[in-house]
Write a structure and sequence with these properties.
two-stranded antiparallel ribbon, 378 residues, 2 domains, Serine Threonine Protein Phosphatase 5, Tetratricopeptide repeat, 18 helices, 63% helix, mainly alpha
């Protein structure tokens, strides 16, 4: 509940602010100042922070794992300076910047300094515009200052953002440990993101990093893609014990259960019984989970609602915000649901798209074998 409220509160504040500003304009507030305030609020929530991360992430020891902009169908995907990048057809989704920290010298100090600079730019720019100008410029400054207050209120519990780095990190010397990546793991994650499974496996099988870092879920993703389900479960358990993000771990664990079912290791009923508690970490809003969590579509299929699974998986299979690896998983989910609804030809098309996204994904062959099995159409 708290996590859900934290994610929607900025939008609530924006809507409420729009209503209040409209009322203030009726009572004499200059319209340009009101418009500027809305622009400043929009800029201060994410674009300003994303721009700062793009400019300073390497100074803080950060390296991008993958970058996407927009949502909907993929307009373009490729690599820029070795980083996987994808662009969606609809620019309304905003940028998604996935990054990790290298164990560079003084990582806490470097991240803290970059975060202080980010907040100083945000607050300083807002104060300068609000105090030195009038009209739209003043409104933009006020909007930036209001979002800074919102960031302070909401950001402290979330690791690696600027508020957390400034207010929490100095008092927790070991707080960065499970956020550190080795160069080898970053390279493997970028390859996994692009769906190049054999190359990612080869990197992970190479020399171990000189400096020990926490277990990454990248190795679990590669094991899952190659059909080594027991190994994937072992790595997930180790990563959880070392303090990784439980939502990320449970997303991979859910995929392991689904792949065990597709390969015939588990019956759909057993897989559904195992999958439901794993997805509880994502909350209890079933409609939200169908929109945002791939495993929820598979759970709908296991529970006898393949049409809901088709609708949800179809969105995930073309979502530019997902990596080709996870879009291929969504394509397999879509194909399995289409098979359950008696549409084998459409299922074959979905599998062909999944193979183009991630040729080394073992699950594709498992779902193809499902086409040969007699299926009761619901």
């Amino acid at each position: 509940m708290i996590h859900h409220l934290r994610s929607v509160l900025p939008r609530i504040v924006l809507v409420a602010g729009t209503v209040v500003l409209s009322a203030k304009v009726d009572h004499g507030l200059p319209p340009w100042t009101a418009l500027g305030f809305l622009i400043g609020t929009l800029l201060g929530q994410e674009p300003l922070s994303d721009l700062w991360v793009l400019l300073t992430h390497r100074l803080g020891g950060g390296r991008f794992l993958g970058v996407s902009y927009g949502c909907g169908r993929v307009l373009w995907q490729g690599t820029v300076a070795g980083v996987p990048v994808s662009l969606g057809l609809r620019p309304t989704g905003g940028p998604r910047l996935d990054w990790g920290l290298l164990p560079v010298r003084a990582p806490r100090l470097r991240l803290w300094a970059c975060s202080v600079g980010r907040l100083a730019v945000h607050g300083g720019l807002g104060a300068w515009l609000a105090l030195s100008f009038t009209g739209a410029a003043r409104g933009i400054g006020l909007g930036l200052l209001s979002t800074l207050v919102l960031l302070v209120l909401l950001g402290a519990p979330s690791p690696l953002n600027s508020i957390w780095a400034v207010l929490v990190l100095p008092f927790r010397p070991r707080a960065l440990e499970h956020h550190l990546w080795s160069t080898r793991d970053i390279t493997a994650e970028r390859l996994l993101w692009r769906g190049r499974i054999p190359e990612a496996r080869a990197v992970l099988d190479g020399p171990a990093p000189a400096r020990a870092v926490r277990t990454r879920l990248t190795a679990a993703g590669v094991a899952l893609a190659e059909g080594r389900h027991d190994e994937a479960d072992r790595i997930i358990g180790l990563a959880l014990a070392q303090g990784c993000d439980p939502r990320e771990a449970h997303a991979v664990a859910a995929a392991v259960i689904v792949c065990r079912s597709d390969s015939g290791e588990l019956t759909p009923a057993t897989a559904g019984a195992l999958l439901a508690p794993v997805l509880e970490v994502f909350g209890h809003d079933e409609r939200a989970k169908l929109r945002h969590v791939q495993g929820a579509a598979d759970l709908a299929r296991f529970n006898g609602d393949p049409e809901a699974a088709v609708r949800a998986a179809r969105r995930h299979a073309v979502d530019a915000r997902l990596s080709p690896h996870w879009r291929a998983h969504a394509g397999c989910t879509l194909a399995a649901a289409l098979i359950a609804t008696g549409r084998p030809e459409r299922a074959g098309e979905a599998l062909a798209r999944a193979r183009r996204e991630c040729p080394g994904l073992t699950r594709i062959a498992d779902v193809e074998r499902m086409l040969e099995r007699p299926v009761e159409v619901r």
